[in-house]
Amino acid sequence: MVIGAGAFGGWTALRLGRLGAEVTLVDSWGPGHARASSGGETRVLRRSYPEGDFVRLADRARLLWLEEERRSGLRLFEPIGVLWMSTAPGEFERRSMENLEAHGVPFERLDPSEIARRYPQLRSDDMYGGFFEPGAGYLRASAACRAVRDALVAEGGCYLQAWCEPGEIRSGELSGLTLPDGSTRAADRYVFAGGPWLAGQFGERLGISLRVTRQEVFVFGTPRGDDRFGPGRLPVWAWLGDRFWYGIPGEGSVGGFKVADDTRGPSFDPTSADRIPSADGLERVRNFLADRFPGMAGAPLVDAAVCQYTEAPGGRFLADRLPGTSNAWVSGGGSGHGFKHGPAIGEYLASLVIGDREPGTDRAFSTVEEIRTPR
Questions:
Q1: pLDDT value of residue 253
Q2: What are phi and psi of 168, to 5 degrees?
Q3: I need a labelling partner for 285 at 20 to 30 A (CA). Which of 140, 152, 217, 240 fits?
Q4: Number of other residues whose CB lies within 10 A of the CB of residue 89
Q5: pTM of the full predicted structure?
C-alpha cells in the first residue's frame, strides 16, 4: 500500500505496479488536491541545479515524463524552456551551467542585449545576464497526479480515497492502517509519502523535524489582445536577486501569468490553516511585476493560492525504511523542488521496496539518520 497520491507516492505506486506488485494507492482528498504540495495547475521542470545529483535525477525524470506522455497520449509537459536572469554573477548560475555542461544538457549563455532582443517585454537594462535551458518547461501538476492514478488503476492497481493512520509496530513490522470508521487495511509492505503530513505521522519515530512552510502563488490576468506574456512569446523564467522569483506564462483554465516568491515563509499547518494569501505578499509581487514586466503593471489578480514546502536538510529527499520496521518506508521533504523529480523518485523508492537497492545508495536522497545528523 502506498499512502499519498502526490508526486512521490503516485509515481512510486505506478512503478511498483509495473514491476508486478499488487498495489493500493491511498489518499485523503484525492491526487493533486487543493491542500497537497503537488496540487495546482503547473510546476517547473528544469535540470538547472548547482548540485550534480539533482541534475542527474531531473534528467532521468524528464525522460520518464516523456515516456509517460507516449504511454498515455496525454500532454503533461510543455518544453517552452526556462530563462534564468540576475543582476550580478552568482554561484548558482556558475555551478548550474557547469553541471549542465558536464551532464550534456543543452543551454545558452545570454548577455543583457540578447535577453532584451528576445524578450523585450522584460526590463533588462540592469541585468548582468543569464542563461536559457531550452529543454526545460512546465508540467501540468494536478492533471499529472490524476493521470498517474488513472494509469495505476487501468493497469490493475487499486485506489482508495480515505484518511488513514498507521497501526502498531509489532515484532519489527507495521501491523496495518486504521481508517476513520475503525476498520483496518493490511498489506505486505507500506510506503508513506504524505508530503507535509509525514512529519505529523512519524515525526517522533523519525526523530526529525521536517519543517512545513507557507508559500504564496499569484496569477495575474494578461492584457487583452496582448500575447507577449503567453507561452508562445515567453518561457518559464527565474529571477535571482534579493529574492528568488519565478513565473510561468499564462495558460490553462485560469489563463493568467503565474508569479511566486520562492523565499521560505512561516511554519504552516497543511490541514487546518486557512489558505488566504497575504496583503503584504500581494504588494510585494505587484511591485516586482511592475518593475520587471512593465506591461503587467496594474494587471488584475485573477487567482491566488497558498501551498507549502516541506523542508529537508540540503534540499535532498527523504527515502528510507521507517525506523524499527522491515516492511514500511517513508519518503518526503520535497523542499519546493520535488515535483519535477516525481517519476525518478518513484523509480528509486520502488527499487528500495522490492529490495533491488538499499537506502542511501543515491546521493540525491537522505536516510533518516542523515537527516537526524545533517552533514
A1: 44
A2: -75, 155
A3: 140
A4: 10
A5: 0.96
